[in-house]
C-alpha cells in the first residue's frame, strides 16, 4: 500500500482517464468517478467542519465517519469489493437516535444557518445528498453494494441533526424559515388569546 502513493503527479490522467483500484481505466466523467469525487468532497467538507468547536462525542463520531467515507470511496474505486460494513450504518442509526432525542421537535423548516459550525454541517449535508444521488445514478447502471446508498442517505440525515446540535452549543437555536403559514398560525393564536372587548 505504501508504494501506491509514492508518485502523485503521474501524468497518466492527462488523456482524460483515471485508474480505478482494480487497474482498469475509465473516463474522468464516468458515473463511478463522479460518485468517488462527491464522496471525496464530502469527506473534505467534514474535515473543515472538524475545525469548529463541538462536543467531544460529536467530534469522535465525525472522525469515524471520515474513515467510513474513505472505505466507501475505496469500495467505489474497486468494483466487486466490499469495504463498507453494515456496522457503519448501525453506528449512524444509533447516533441519529441519540442526538435527535435530545432536540426539541421542529415546528417548521429551518434555514441552513446559525453558528459557523452548524452552517458547515449543512454544507456537508447537501454534499452528502449529492453524493447519494451520484451513487444512485451509478447503481442504476452497475451493480453496487446497497449499503453505500443507505449510508449516504443516513449520513445526510445525521448531519442535519448535528447542525441543530451545533446551533445549541452556547444556548443558541435553529433559524426558522419565516413562512406565511407560520405567520398566519401565530396571528390566529394571538387573536384567540385576546380577551373579548
TrEMBL record:
Q: What is its EC number?
A: 2.5.1.-
Renumbered to this chain, region (Disordered) spans: 1-26
Q: Where is the Cobalamin adenosyltransferase-like domain?
A: 8-165
Q: Which reaction does it catalyse?
A: 2 cob(II)alamin + AH2 + 2 ATP = 2 adenosylcob(III)alamin + 2 triphosphate + A + 2 H(+)
For this UniProt record, give its keywords in alphabetical order, as a comma-separated list: ATP-binding, Cobalamin biosynthesis, Nucleotide-binding, Transferase
Which Gene3D superfamilies does the record match to this protein? Answer: Cobalamin adenosyltransferase-like
Q: Which molecular function GO terms apply here? A: corrinoid adenosyltransferase activity
Provide the family line. Belongs to the Cob(I)alamin adenosyltransferase family.
| Protein name per UniProt | Cobalamin adenosyltransferase
**Native source organism of the sequence:** Variovorax ureilyticus
